[in-house]
Structure formats: C-alpha cells, structure tokens
C-alpha cells in the first residue's frame, strides 16, 4: 500500500500497496540486482501470479473437509476449529517478523523460502498425527504471512508505474486460488481415492511449482535486498507512534473484526450447509462461489473509498451486507444458499478492500502507512484467529449454529461502530 495525501476531487490513489521496507534506503549493489531482475519481467510476473495463487488456497481447501478431518481424529467442534484457527493465528505472528526477514535476506529469497515452507506445512498436515495436523497449520500460517507482507512491497518496488494493474493481477490470482481450491476439495478427495489427506496434500504441488518459478529470481538477486541502509529521519520528523493513536486502533480493530467474520466463514460455511442437509460437493461449490464473488467488492469499494473524504457510507454498506448474509444463513441456510453467498461475498470483499484502503487514507506518509499496516495485520489476524475457535465452541455447546451466528452479528455491529470512527477524514 502506498500512503498519499489528496485534495477533494483529485483522482483516487492508484494503489493500496504498503511497502514493509518503507523506512530503509537502497544500496548500489541492491540497485544493480533490481535492474537484473527487471531485465526478466516475464519471470517475475509468472512468479508473482503463482505465489499469489498460493496465498489463500491452503486455507480455502480445508473448509469443505473440516468434518472429515474431525471425524478421522475424533475431534470435537472446538478442536476441529483449530485446524483453521491455528494458521490464522500465525498470520499475525508471521507478520511481525516478515519485514525484518525481507530486509535481512532479500524479498526474493524470503518469498522462495516461504513457498517451500508452505509446501512442507501442507504435507505435514496430512501425516497420520493430530500434532502434525496442527504443526502443519503453524507452518502454513507463517508462510502465508510472509507472502502477505512482502508481496505488496515487492510489487510496489518493481512495478511503481503499473502498481494498479499489478494489484489487480495479484489480488485476482489470490482469489482465483481460493476459489479453485474450495471448489476442488471434495472432487479431489474422490478422484485421488485417498480421502481428505490426498485432497489436502495436492496443494503442496502448487507451492512447489511456485517455488520453482521463484528460483531464477533468487539466483539473479543473489540475496541482495537493495535496502541495506536504514533511512535516518530528519531531526524535526519524529516517527509517528501508531500504537498510541486512537485512530490507528480504530483502523486496526475494523481490520481485525472484518477478518474475524471472514475467517468464521472460511472455517465453517460448508459445515453450516452440510449440517442443514446440503451435500458436501454442493457446499464446496457454494463456498467457492462466495470466494469468487468477493472480487467484485474488493475491486469496487476501494475505488469509491479513494474518492470520498469520509468513507462512512461504505462502512455502513459492507457491514450491512455481511450482517444480512449471516442472518440469511441463520434463517434459511440451504434455501437461500446462493443468495447469502453472493451477499456475503460482496460484503467480505468490500470490507477487506476498505480496511486496507483506510490504512492508506488515514496515514500521513509512507512510513506511517507501513507501521500502521504492520500493526493492523498483526493485531487484526490475532483477533481474527479467535473467530473460528469461538464459533466452533459455541456450536459444540449448543448443537446449533444460531448462537454462533448471533455472536458474529454482534461483531458486525461492533465493526460498524469502530468503522464509523476510522472512516472520519483524519490522519494518524
């Protein structure tokens, strides 16, 4: 994400990319490596697309199989929810170390290592051990966190004049990966004849192919980051402490709460449908449709947000759509499944796009945007990890999805409140 100030009526920001390394300067060796990398743009583009395909596939492929995985190990609903909660928790933990790793070893090398780690984590989850299942989830979450944090900065660094187009490629591939993984989970289970383990392990191949595509970039860059020299701020330009800013906390809480309601769906949407009589294969397809439709909200809402001084109408819109979709899942989950998936998809995509855009619009400069992005991702994902776990525990305690959905509706109301505060025309 980039941070920039705008006057009323000026064009919207062309990108919502925050460079995690915004506070460090390039070196001569790093500049030479950048030129060598950009001499092979096709290799870089293929690497970005393949890496982006992996950024949600390993999470989305689990949801249609949660009931099968829980049954195989005799897990309760609460313990089963950890299959999806653990990776989300480590999305937040991994976000803490990703910028340092990128500066220390270079974005290309860390992205390559993250893809290898992702493949190992996916394979670990299918080993015949519940400890490996959760341990693999830790590796998967950490790997995706590294991709989440470093990929936007790499795109901003290497494609500064085409950031908007590359953002579309990056987000489109990410959503496509999630959509295909969700839709293919049950068919793969049947086609491979190995039960849920074969379906889940299949996606390690995608990670391996992406890592292979990144290998030439690693060899060309030779580990040089291009950011070896830390920028020294001017005497009168003290860094903004985002952790002490009420506005920064409002932005962060909106990021976390919208992530929470999304990860509850990632964990439990197919199970909600199957518990009400829908077949597992149909539930997987409806879940995939929900992932696909998110691209509409994720594309349109940030464009609208960038043209508005206050984003309050958009806060109301996205939270209302999500609340309406959840209410529909409670009242008529199977009869209105496609409608609720579409409503939720537009709301989910719009909410995440709006949350990321608020980081840009509320920050006064690029360095503040980078710090605010790190705070929002770390706290936001740690908060979101509680969602699937709490929903599973409440479902186990009550034997129904009514109370878990009511709690998420309360989350929507809270997100509306903090979102309205975060959407004011202010700067951190």
From TrEMBL:
Entry's localization field: Cell membrane
UniProt-listed Gene3D superfamilies: MFS general substrate transporter like domains
Domain Major facilitator superfamily (MFS) profile: start-end pairs: 40-427
InterPro entries, alphabetized: MFS (IPR011701), MFS_Cyanate_Porter (IPR052524), MFS_dom (IPR020846), MFS_trans_sf (IPR036259)
One protein family per Pfam: MFS_1
GO MF annotation, one: transmembrane transporter activity
Keyword entries, A-Z: Membrane, Transmembrane, Transmembrane helix
SUPFAM superfamilies assigned to the protein according to its UniProt record, in alphabetical order: MFS general substrate transporter (SSF103473)
TM ranges: 42-66, 72-98, 110-127, 133-155, 167-188, 200-220, 247-269, 281-305, 314-332, 338-361, 373-395, 401-423
GO CC terms of this entry: plasma membrane
Membrane topology: Multi-pass membrane protein
Signal sequence segment: none
This protein's name: Major facilitator superfamily (MFS) profile domain-containing protein
Organism annotation: Streptomyces venezuelae (strain ATCC 10712 / CBS 650.69 / DSM 40230 / JCM 4526 / NBRC 13096 / PD 04745)
């Amino acid at each position: 994400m980039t941070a920039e100030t705008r006057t009323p009526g000026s064009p919207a920001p062309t990108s919502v990319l925050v460079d995690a390394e915004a506070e460090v300067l390039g070196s001569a060796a790093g500049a030479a490596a950048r030129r060598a990398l950009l001499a092979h743009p096709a290799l870089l583009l293929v690497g970005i697309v393949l890496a982006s395909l992996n950024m949600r596939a390993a999470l989305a492929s689990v949801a249609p199989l949660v009931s099968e995985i829980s049954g195989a190990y005799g897990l309760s609903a609460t313990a089963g929810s950890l299959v999806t909660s653990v990776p989300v928790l480590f999305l937040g933990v991994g976000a803490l170390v990703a910028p340092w790793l990128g500066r220390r070893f270079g974005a290309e090398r860390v992205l390559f290592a993250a893809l290898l780690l992702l493949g190992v984590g996916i394979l670990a989850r299918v080993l015949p051990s519940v400890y490996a299942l959760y341990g693999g989830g830790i590796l998967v979450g950490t790997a995706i966190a590294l991709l989440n944090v470093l990929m936007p900065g790499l795109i901003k660094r290497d494609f500064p004049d085409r950031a908007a187009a590359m953002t579309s490629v990056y987000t489109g591939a990410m959503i496509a990966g999630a959509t295909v993984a969700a839709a293919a989970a049950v068919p793969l289970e049947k086609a491979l004849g190995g039960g849920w383990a074969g379906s889940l392990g299949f996606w390690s191949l995608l990670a391996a192919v992406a890592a292979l595509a990144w290998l030439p970039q690693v060899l060309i860059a030779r580990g040089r980051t291009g950011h070896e020299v830390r920028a020294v701020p001017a005497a009168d330009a003290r860094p903004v402490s985002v952790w002490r800013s009420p506005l920064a906390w409002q932005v962060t809480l909106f990021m976390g709460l919208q992530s929470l309601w999304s990860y509850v769906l990632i964990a439990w949407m197919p199970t909600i449908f199957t518990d009400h009589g829908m077949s597992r294969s149909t539930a997987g397809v409806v879940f995939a449709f929900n992932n696909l439709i998110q691209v509409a909200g994720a594309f349109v809402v940030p464009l609208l947000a960038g043209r508005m001084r206050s984003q309050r109408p958009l806060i109301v819109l996205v939270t209302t759509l999500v609340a309406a979709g959840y209410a529909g899942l409670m009242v008529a989950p199977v009869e209105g499944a496609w409608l609720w998936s579409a409503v939720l998809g537009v709301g989910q995509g719009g909410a995440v796009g709006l949350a990321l855009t608020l980081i840009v619009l509320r920050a006064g400069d690029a360095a503040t945007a980078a710090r605010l992005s790190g705070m929002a991702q770390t706290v936001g994902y740690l908060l979101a990890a509680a969602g699937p776990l709490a929903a599973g525990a409440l479902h186990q305690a009550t034997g129904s999805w009514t109370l878990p959905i009511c709690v998420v509706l309360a989350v929507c109301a809270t997100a509306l409140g903090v979102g309205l505060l975060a959407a004011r025309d202010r700067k951190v």
